[in-house]
Amino acid sequence: MPRAVRYDRYGPVDVLYVADVATPAPAADEVVVEVVAAGLNPGEIGVREGLAHAVWPATFPSGQGSDFAGHVVAVGSAVSAPPIGTEVIGFTNRRAAQADYVAVPADQVTPKPAAVGWDVAGSLFVAGTTAYAAVRAVGAEPGETVAVSAAAGGVGSLAVQLLRHQGVRVLAVAGEANHDWLASLGAVPIAYGKGVEGVEGVEEQLRAAAPEGVDAFIDAYGGGYVELAIRLGVAPVRINTIIDFPAAKKFGTKSDGNMSAARADVLAELAELVAEGRISAAVSATYPIEQVREAYTALAGPHSRGKIVLRMR
Length: 313
Description:
The strands form 3 sheets. Strands 3, 4, 5, 6, 7, 13 and 14 form a 7-stranded mixed beta sheet that branches. Strands 10-9-8-11-12 form a 5-stranded parallel beta sheet, sandwiched between helices. Strands 1-2 form a two-stranded antiparallel ribbon. The model has no long low-confidence stretch (mean pLDDT about 95). Helix 3 (about 125-140) packs across helix 4 (about 155-165). The two termini are about 15 Å apart. It has helices spanning about 45-50, 120, 125-140, 155-165, 180-185, 200-210, 225-230, 245-250, 265-275, 290-300, and strands at about 5, 15-20, 30-40, 65-75, 85-90, 100-105, 110, 145-150, 170-175, 190, 215-220, 240, 285-290, 305-310. The chain is α/β, with parallel strands linked by helices. It is globular.
């Protein structure tokens, strides 16, 4: 029987289980994809714990996951492309990616370039489109200086690379264990500071690294970085946070994220950049679907580089 990650009530990681389910049939405008890899995203933890119920209420039993990559195995009557057998990268808005099979509208998949591995492909959508939206929001120009918090994470590391691809100087705030890697991407590493959120001491480092000022700021961490950007003199219209929505409202900054760029053409553009070696998407660990609890435990643990991926096959 095909398998899918499920949970029947809000709660900690222990509510997750793998269920036997029926293979989905495609609607007229859909394709069915046999999933090879599906990425995990931090936001899924809050949804599963019920913290996002007011915005994204669950209907139980609920599935999980948006990102996936796999093979098209069935197409609806109104679908002309992609054909059966195509390797694709895609996304679902139905919390259904962490499964052996997923049915999605045909316009939510794009062909997977041969040079892009399954694990990277299966974890590219949310992090990639979020980074894409954040970079677009701050409107950085070649030669400008942009700071990025949580720069070694799944979103932050892609934002760093997209900025560098545009000829931007990047100040990358991250743990020291990731500094050499970020430097290899062409960024200027900035160490996390002291305090609960790690903000204390960062301002001084950023001012020293950019004595002429920081032009824009991408916050992928929260907890005080929007306020820090304001203190640095960055215009609110050139600050984008993907997590600190109260601060965005307070200071009038932008908060563009995944939904601002959640399209197959954006996903195709990102995949092509990966295939060409212009950007890379780091995967820190992979787990079989049966170890979904362990995978989410790792995701909620100490900050790691890149993405965590579930493997179906």
